[in-house]
Specification:
- The chain has 6 helices and 9 strands.
- The chain has 198 residues and is of the alpha/beta class.
- It folds into 2 domains: 72 residues, TusA-like domain (Translation Initiation Factor IF3), CATH 3.30.110; 108 residues, DsrEFH-like (Hypothetical Protein Ychn, Chain: A), CATH 3.40.1260.
Amino acid sequence: MKEIDARGLACPAPVLQTKAVIDKKNVSALIVIVDNEAAKQNVCRFLESNHYQTAIKRNDDNFIITGTLTKSSLPPDEKALPKKSDEKKIMVMCTTDRMGFGDDELGLKLMVSFIKTLKEMGPDLWRLVFLNNGVRLAIEGSEVLPLLQEYASDGLYIMVCGTCLTHFDLLAKKRVGETTNMLDIVTAMHLADKVINI
């Protein structure tokens, strides 16, 4: 069984190391050791998206993630996959919790209004990504948290940067979306028909 020691590494490095191992050879089982919550969440989600079943053990300050590829976790036949829809895939990236510069109070009001109005994009809104100070919109106490939770329950995929949450010591306060990493964000940008940066 292949073992990856990714302790001391911030995301996306643990995910990238895991991806490199999986890409190089046919790996049916592997262990990834990380030492922070964001890396644990990101590695597990990456493994699961690549059809591995995951199990996590805690050992002091470390998380030991075991990924196992089984027949039941293999992807379905391509013919069984749903056909592409004609909807556009628009990704909106919010890198701040305020819009514009000059007055922070006004900037916050504008951002709240922007988030409320995003629903007008309808099904074309494909991903909503929060980076840097924008992660503050996805934590407890955020004025737009109930709206974001409603968007998520309606099927909008919300991505919240784990490195940013960790930097601001907000990981435990995140209340909506998936804790994500730069590999996921870059992949989503590549797949999107359009990316809007705020």
